Amino acid sequence: MSKYLKYLFCLSLCSLTACERLGLADPAKEAALKEADARATGSACRHAGRGIEDCYALNPAAARAAVYAGWKEMNDYMRENNIADVKPSIEVPVSAETEESASDSASASASASASASAH
Question: Which intervals carry biased composition (Low complexity) (predicted)?
Answer without folding.
Answer: 103-119
